[in-house]
Amino acid sequence: MKQLHKQFSDEEIKQYFKWYEDRVMTKSEVLALLGIKDSRFYALLAKYRNKPKEFSVAYNRVKATRNLSPKVVKQIRRELETERGFVTNPNMPIMFYNYSAIRDAVEEETGYSLSAQTVINYAKRWGYYLERPKRKAHTREVLTDSVGMLLQHDASVHQWSPYVFRPDGKPLKWSLITTLDDHSRKMLYADLYEHESAWAHIQSLESVILNHGVGIQYYSDNHAIFRYVVNRDGLSAANYRNILGTDDIAPQWKQCVEATGMKVTYALSPEAKGKIERPYRWLQDRIVRRSAREHARTLEDVKHILYQEVDRYNNRAVHSTTGEIPNVRFMNAINDGRTVFKSLDITKTKPPVTSTKDLFCLRTERRVNGYGKISLNSMQISVPGNLPDGTPVTLHIIPNPITTEVRFLRNDVVLGYQQIQTPKQLQF
User: Fold this and answer.
1) Which domain holds residue 380?
2) CA-only gyration radius of the chain, Å
3) Global pTM?
């Protein structure tokens, strides 16, 4: 039923009924104008005929609105006051109130269900309200019809809690790495690292593929970890300038992606990365607020909050673009056969391998010296196989905090491996 009181004034509707009574307008014309059906027309006409001067379509609530308990109202005010502290704190990247996050915090604290609009109404009444600037409209669309076709991948370096600082007093920042499925908008991977590195991104790739399978392509920005760009990434000398072009060198992460059979494509502008930037803003906003509220002081504390918010995003929040909960949309696509994910088959990778360690690793080339050794980060390491002086070998390196595994390959065949003490350069 259309809310006439929001579309027409009482005087306008009375004029239409008067014209109907005077046979200036037909019933069909009045129905079309007001957008109502016969039953509503006759009910309003009877009301008009009964008391023309007092006729009104103004909405009068016949049932009292639900009153919130004093406990809930008190918690709303407490959360709004806490939020004001975030907004006014110059060290926090928060400029506006997040009423949905406040609503969630109140519900978790009181067990009482309420809407974000209820929080907004109280915020306006008490002065905890800031109007957000209107943003330029942009296209939000799903580019794929199956899960696994396009995986959005990115990282964000940020001070995730206002209570973490370096020894010199400067803000301590950690790197959030995520991978998002384009079709479902589900976050397939999200974790925090002390430092962003190629190895951290390789670990995220390994997690996605082992848990979900091999898709079609990854989509990233042009960060040096993901893409070599000529004259930007260190090779600008004259003898290189006309030899190497953009993408002529494959960074470590890209080598790992392509070894699984997937491709890498790049965003040509910040706007093109919008689909993953929005979840980042959503996560950043939620994590920073909760970290401040819960006084998170360690990486593990913030990770705990991250995992809870990723669970909320994937399993409870309705995505604004798809209109569905990401994990529900993800599973529906799989159940309908709309998935291109395939289980990893290491015998069909490029080249075939006997262990996933030879897919998800750091790669480099060395030549064996006259003593049957190679040099790695100033360390002399013996190479299995008694190879002649000058023989090129490929090293597959799997770093760990204490020990690192170095695997020696010749013509894609593993000759052997050694465990070495992790050098400082590989302590990511």
Assistant:
1) 361-426
2) 31
3) 0.73
Q: Is residue 259 part of a domain?
A: yes
Domain annotation covers residue 352? no
Give me the mean pLDDT over the 304-328 stretch: 92
Q: How far apart are CA 26 and CA 41, in angstroms?
A: 12
Query: What CA–CA distance (Å, rounded) separates 339 from 330?
Result: 9
**Final residue in a domain of this structure, among 335, 352, 382:** 335
Do 399 and 316 lie in a common domain?
A: no
Distance CA 115, CA 118 (A): 5
pLDDT of residue 164: 92
Number of structural domains (the chain) is 4
49 three-state secondary structure: helix
Alpha carbon distance 428, 402 (integer Å): 11
Residues 120 and 156 in one domain: no
> Could you tell me if 225 and 272 are in contact, meaning their C-beta atoms sit under 8 angstroms apart?
no
Same domain for 190 and 270, yes or no, is yes
DSSP assignment of 81-106 equals HHHHHHHH-TTSS--S--HHHHHHHH
Q: Check if the beta carbon of residue 368 is closer than 8 Å to that of residue 389.
A: yes
pLDDT score at 239: 42
Phi-psi region of 385 (alpha: psi -120 to 50; beta: other; left: phi over 0): left
Which of 202, 208, 220, 204 has its CA nearest to residue 153?
Answer: 220
Sheet strands side by side (includes 263-266): 187-193, 174-181, 150-158, 217-220, 263-266
* CB contact at 8 A, 426 and 377: yes
DSSP at 426 = G
Query: Does residue 172 sit within a domain?
Result: yes
Give the pairing type, strands 187-193 and 174-181. antiparallel
Can you tell me the distance from the alpha carbon of 187 to that of 144, in angstroms, rounded to the nearest whole number?
16
Helices assigned H by DSSP within 336-423:
none
Same domain, 122 and 163: no
User: Could you tell me if 87 and 157 lie in one domain?
Assistant: no
List the structure tokens of 54: 């007092």
* pLDDT tens by residue, 190-218: 999 999 999 999 999 999 999 999 999 99
89-121: per-residue pLDDT in tens?
Answer: 776 767 788 898 899 889 989 989 898 899 999
Instruction: Kindly report the backbone phi and psi dihedral angles of residue 418, in degrees, each rounded to the nearest multiple of 5, phi listed first.
Output: -140, 150
Q: Is residue 132 part of a domain?
A: no
Shared-domain flag, residues 100 and 171: no
